[in-house]
Predict the structure.
Amino acid sequence: MKRLRFLLAGIWLTVAVTVLVAKPVDDPASLANIKDVRITHLDLHLDVDFEKKVLRGHVTLSLNNLTGTDTLILDSRGLKIQKVTTGESGQPVQYSLGEYVLHLGRPLQILITPETEMVTVYYETSDDAGALQWCSPEQTAGGSAPFLYSQSQFIEARSWIPLQDSPGVRMTYSATITVPKGYLALMAAENRQTIDSSGIYHFEMPQPIPSYLMALAVGKLEYRVLGERAGVYAEPALVEKAAREFSGTGKMVKVAEDLYGPYQWEQFDILTLPPSFPFGGMENPRLTFATPTIITGDRSLVSVIAHELAHAWSGNLVTNATWNDFWLNEGFTTYFERRITEATKGRAYASMLTKLDYDGLQAAVQRIGPENSATALKREYGARDPADFYNWIPYVKGMFFLRMLEEEFGRRRFDAFLEDYFKTHRFQSVTTEGFLEYLREHLLNNNSALERELYIREWIYEPGIPANCPVVSSPELERVANNAKQYLEETDASVIDTSGWTARHWDYFFSRLPDTLSMEQMAVLDEAFGLTESANARIQREWYQLAIHSGYGKAYTAIREYLLTVGRISLIRPVYRALASTKVGAARAQLIYESAKSGYHPMTREAIERVLGP
Ligand code: BES
Ligand code: ZN
């Protein structure tokens, strides 16, 4: 069975690589010469040194020289290069590291010939590699062993592997990772489920993937099966809780397949990371990385898993060609995620999430500016780090764009269109313009009047929210809004009926309150629901902002603790922002940040420093 799968993967691979190579696209976020030469396979050999906090070893790249160029230019940032060789024989060749280019790193230029098929780079990472977080034992659930993980998206893969760091280039990979004895090494590849006493782990990734999906984690981990093709890794202290929270994952995979065709990555596992992980989830193929803050006991945040699963189609299978086309990854995924949620949790629940997103979109557009090009789907980042521009627009505006099409053409037709789109472009990358062409041909019937009527150009290229954005309502949330209103009128917590409330209901409840409450209003809420002591990070995020704006001092110790523990950017940045909005608060934020900083992933640090200033 395994061999057959491998064979099949090999066939896809040939098809995919041939198609891809035919259409190289310029990527302003990469210094690599991807139009001249392409990496097709990568063989990685790394030793993990927890003491020095470096990865050390070499990588062998298989090349397809398209233009007969004599130079291979790779992306790199902070890497210490020791030697470069070519071919099987390991003949040393000339190379040079170019000047540092702001945001992008240093080009590694290697002398090759049109016949060169293989290049090996010997290197080590620096201790401030942008992708890597070396967690101390105190940052883990067990508290006794360190933990390493990577986060390569957007352009951090180059900080731990010299490669062509562009989403338009796909490669298969194999890897050998050596770790101290007693640790489990995992990659976004075929994984072992138990610790190997040798400390040496081999990985194969037979499906071609873009560099931003390269991922590695090392820790003291256990595995639990969640279904035929699904499972979860977590530290022993957390693994049972994680398995309970994510028990619906196997079913989700089936639901997703029923919507848009076969799951192409064989296995769907989840890795639960330490709370410093900067994102909710990351769609590393075969092994989604997830924040432990979604383990709430009530499965109210498993939509993050649905989201990362949806990326197995939109993103990992069909990939945005450059980061300017990021909405093709996230907008499609958010749409797909909601469809999975609708199928697993029902329409009312899905509408509730969509209503929250609708309000979130309005708020984001207001905050960024309805005329600001940062609210357009297609972006032009130029030679910048896309992380500097990261916001929710591509997610939610992208989702509503697809929802608008669904409403216009009917679910049956639209689903068939999407399934074909994924199938036609599988293991390829797509530009916004490529998608538009496909849309015209396969859904709009090349009818330009209809295209104008649907505001297709406005949706994709213009800022703001087009007039035909679907409107959503949620009776469930209307009840929450009424509760909030009544509470504000009567300052009586017993008018709030929280039975059956999830973190989402609380989100909406808080959104219906003014920016500040009186001390009495705060105290009444806190006493009734224990909000300051909540263990649900989403409730904490909302409550702490309210506490800061209202000057509710009782929450400050908890706020500090929260900011010292959680590293998920979207959970802590709003709290830092709230603090930074007053002079006293800003000083307090700076103090907390100084203590918290060493426990944050480099991406979190960057995001918070942007809020707090230098
Ligand atoms: N791929 C993203 C996370 C990401 C985006 C990492 C950009 C680095 C740069 C992931 O799929 C994602 O969108 N995560 C969301 C989940 C949410 C929308 C359900 C998150 O982390 O908040
Ligand atoms: Zn996503």
